[in-house]
Amino acid sequence: MRKFFWIPAIAVALAAACTAEQTQEGEMPEVDVRGGQMPAYDVDPANVTVTQDTQRVITPEVNVTPAPNP
Q1: How confident is the model at residue 4 (pLDDT cuts 50, 70, 90)?
Q2: C-alpha–C-alpha distance, residues 70 and 68, integer Å
Q3: DSSP assignment of 5-69, as one string?
C-alpha cells in the first residue's frame, strides 16, 4: 500500500517542474455542411427468455468450536 503513495507524489513533482505559456490564440474552423444521409441499420434483437426457477442447494454443516481461553 505504501508503494502506491509515491505515484501521485511523483506526478505532482513532475507537473510542478514544467511551465506552459500560451503563445497564440485559438480559432474555430468555418464549416459548411450540406446534404448527407444517416446510415441505415437492420437490427435483429436477441430473443431473451427470463424465467424463475426454484432450486434446492445442499450446503455442508459447519461446526465452529472456539478455543478455550488460557
Answers
A1: low
A2: 6
A3: GHHHHHHHHHHHT------S---PPP-------PPP-------------------------PPPP
Indicate the length of the chain as a whole number. Answer: 70
Q: What digits encode the pLDDT tens for the residues 8-42?
A: 777 777 666 677 788 999 999 998 888 888 899 99
pLDDT at 61: 92
Find cell 506526478 and name the residue. Answer: 11
Residue 38 CB partners (closer than 8 Å, separation 6+): none
**Cell reading at 48:** 431473451
User: In whole angstroms, what is the distance from residue 45 CA to residue 24 CA?
Assistant: 51
Cell of 13: 513533482
